[in-house]
Amino acid sequence: MIAKENLLKTKQHFEILDGLRGIAAIAVVVFHFMEIAITDYSKNFIGHGYLAVDFFFCLSGFVIVYAYDNRIGQIGIWQFVKLRLIRLQPLVIIGSILGLLTFLFDPFSDFYASYGFGKTALIFISSVFVIPYPVMEERYFNLFNLNAPAWSLFWEYIINIVYASALFKAPKRVLQLLTILGAVILFYVAFNSKNIAGGWGGPNFWDGGARVLFSFLFGMLIYRSNWIIKNNIGFLGLGIFLLIGFLIPYNDEYNWLVEPMLAIIYFPLIVSLGAGSSLKPSVKKLAELSGEISYPLYMTHYPFVWILLTYVAVVKPSLSTLAFVIPISVISLIILAYLILIFIDTPIRNYLKNRLTKAS
Fold this sequence. Notes:
The chain has 360 residues and is mostly helical. It has helices spanning 2-8, 15-37, 52-68, 72-75, 77-105, 111-128, 150-165, 172-193, 205-224, 234-247, 255-276, 284-300, 302-315, 319-359.
């Protein structure tokens, strides 16, 4: 019993990497609001903000290997799946509920009148169980109409299952070859689509698979190969470096080359540096808070982006008005994410984790 409980315990975190995850989450929230206000990415100051997802995938590969490589053989695939569901699924459901509420009570639209109870129920159920169901033309046939970022959770679940069933025991040479293959596929996607922004909708569904394939595998490889670079850059310095990747000007002509280079070289380098850097006591609480709110913020913000979309379509506000609305919205959502973390997500996960430990 004691040995089993120890196997289920969470290992110590890489605090700087956790903090960087929060910076990436805020960046993607800002991007999602900005792309409603300014649809031309070349005029958007954070036009590469969606690449935060590729950073998330790389970080996930690194952290999963660190946390589970030496114990998944003992706990088994099913126990691993339970632990991942406990970590991820509560916020998928919370985000779906928020998505449903904003769907029903959006002051600038009345989608329920068009879709009715039956289709609305199917949309909600598909969101809760992370089942792609692209039916809303008004939302660009997004795979998960109520909570768009769930597309990346779909691929995260897929790659986690592949890891638990095969990748955890793959020799390093095989992992290297798969990672190279993933890089080639990612370049093909970028050349074909002129970006690597896909994964969220029907026509670009498989692009999401390419993104998670390379980044997750490279994250695994960083840890297993001990490509951890010792440095004194620290949390704030690495946070600035990470933001630079999102703030690089978007250029239609060269974007097919810039984005895969960011995903293949730049973000993995930041993961290596983040794992090898030390956290100064003066920013420890900031980094911890940033890490704690990252996933709640990512999984709860998009229902409000849908409201901004209908607000812009109906009211047609000026850019000066949006320059006020967007920062207030981002700050409000960070506060909401923190409240959800403290009062809903953490208690639920602690309860489920305790139940799992007792059952073991």
